[in-house]
Amino acid sequence: MREVKLDVKGEKIDVQVVHDEGVRWPCPECGELLTVYDHAPERVWRHLDTCQFKTYLHARIPRVNCPDLALIREHVPGAEDKLVFDRYHLMRHLVQAVDNVHKQEHRELKREGLGVLAVTKYLWLYSQENLPPEKRSLFYWLKKKRLKTARAWAIKESFRELWDYQSLGWAAKHFKSWYAWAIRSRLNPIKQVARMFRKYLRNILTYLKHRITNAVSEGINSTIQTIKKMACGFRNREHFKIAIYFHCGGLDLYPGTHENI
Question: For FRET with 174, which of 37, 79, 181, 259 sits at 20 to 30 Å CA-CA?
């Protein structure tokens, strides 16, 4: 990593990556280790976000001249299999789709004089296991009403099962079945998200291999934003940094006690 540029106003981080001098690279065709011939033009990849900052990797891919093939080849070993789309953001797309279905259906029912979906916006954003006990009776009653919103919620919950698979093949079969259900649902917000997921399926399924997510950094970012709101903003950047360290630094704030002598 040669250089890191932080753009606070643009909420962006650019990371410049280079390789060590003298490194030999395998030919992507025959596998023979060769010295670098030259470098391709710079390419940019989106990385997992760093808190609220979008993070981009910049690199010029080394190219080798294979004597057997008489061709110069670009090679980034296993690049496609190392790219993982974050499950947190994928689920956020689905949750937003459920919310959009809820809004549309609520408007339609209100025009008919029915307020069955009134004050239920956040009820449909819960996952099955996180549903508060005091809201379960209302939620199960609503599910029996054959609502579009209930159908969208069920589709969202079904997709979450993808993360529990250990086998890539079984996960792909589950997605195929889920995609067919989502497309036949006649719910446009759900169908749009399903098509997007199918387009990027390869790098959704790579999660099963690497099991990485930026949920921790998103949680830290949420805490930082809460600190900012509680203080109504900070004029001094150093004071903001101190507040972040104080709340997120894992400090032991309990008073010490005297040991019995």
Answer: 79
